[in-house]
Amino acid sequence: MVRCSRWTLGGGGGPAAGVRVNPRQTELERSRRRGRGPRRPPRAARHNVLVTERRRTRRPTIVDIAAAAGVSKSLVSLALRGDEGVSDATRARILGVADELGYRSNTLARGLVQGRTMLLGVLLTDLANPYHTEVVAGVEEAADAEGFTALLAHGRNDRRRLEQQLDALLQLSVDGVVVISSWLDPRVLTEAARRAPVVMVGRPAEHPTGVDTVANDDAAGATAAVEHLAGLGHRRIAHIAGSRRPAARARREGYLAAMRRAGLAAEAAVHTIGDDTGRRAAAAAELLEAAAPTAVFAVNDLAALAVLDRAHVLGVPVPDRLSVVGYDNTGLAETVRPRLTSVDQPRATMGRLAVTLLLERLGGRTADRREVLPPTLIPRASTGVAPAG
Q: Where is the composition biased (Basic residues) (predicted)?
């Protein structure tokens, strides 16, 4: 019997003459006769099949990467984490396979294994307030430098929602939470700190047990504002106050104390906006029309902008007839005209310090820390010498 690659000719128990034979079937038959299965396809072929199949079915895992790359699961884990013990060539191959499979690291699942999610929660009262967002910028910068991802939760000026959002962050197994708000009950923060480290940025009514705080010396900031204005010759210095919350209260008390020290207690005038942000314009109007001050110290930059706006409506030139000082020194102070004199509390620094305190807690520190940062008055064009008369 004579055989060629694709046809079998002749008899002798083989296929009938002229019958076409599949070479692959012949290979399988020879393999069975030798007592072994068919040859496995080369690694590249297996890899392509695995990649295609995994894409069709489900989210790929490191087990899938290991199978497709022909390496162990532990080697894949080392390569994906960037650890030592993996050659450059092997790491490149593993990363290439991971990319082809569409692999994405499951942060929460990894956290269950490693005891860390590398997530930090950030809870704030009001996204519309630039003070809050500028503290967040500092938190995010410091978190990113340490390999953490910041998750933002917004309370929308609602105490109940703040509590709900805090619980939601903790349910995500964040490694810690930065709370940029003084609205939460200290007992709520203490309970949260039993589940994960908590740092509060702001002045608490009372210090929650187990919670670190980062605050600004509000009374000192108010004093700096009054002394600046008194130094320019102003006597009728009024104050637009915030709510009865700790920081606003400390600024109001600092203003009143500074007026007394300057011998101007009889000239003190306070108009309160409370928690209603819509009251800013009305309070500015009431103050300018009733108290007729030559200078105003506002509880924050947003309130100061309301005064500037009302002065413009009334035709009162700033700073020729009215000087205005804000608080926080947010980005608004540089963009408004005239540029706003404001008391600077270092918002980004406070955010970065909050992350540092969280990391210390994660490192094992148990004692509470209370950090108070000094403010600095930044003079700009909205303040000038008191008008004559």
A: 31-46
What is the CATH T-level fold of the domain 117-217+348-373, as seen in this structure?
Rossmann fold (3.40.50)
Distance from C-alpha of 255 to C-alpha of 218, rounded to nearest angstrom: 10
SS3 string of 46-78? HHHHHHHHHHHHCCCCHHHHHHHHCCCHHHHHH
CATH of domain 219-345: 3.40.50.2300
Residue ranges, CATH 3.40.50.2300, the chain: 117-217+348-373, 219-345
Per DSSP bridges, beta strands 198-201 and 176-180 are parallel
**CA dihedral angle for residue 296, residue 297, residue 300, residue 301, rounded to 10 degrees:** 50
Token look-up 């890899």 returns: 47
Statement: residue 39 has pLDDT above 70: no
Packing angle between helix 279-286 and helix 301-314, nearest 10 degrees?
50
Question: Residues 205-228: pLDDT tens digits?
Answer: 889 999 999 999 999 999 999 999
Contact by Cβ (8 Å): 300, 326: yes
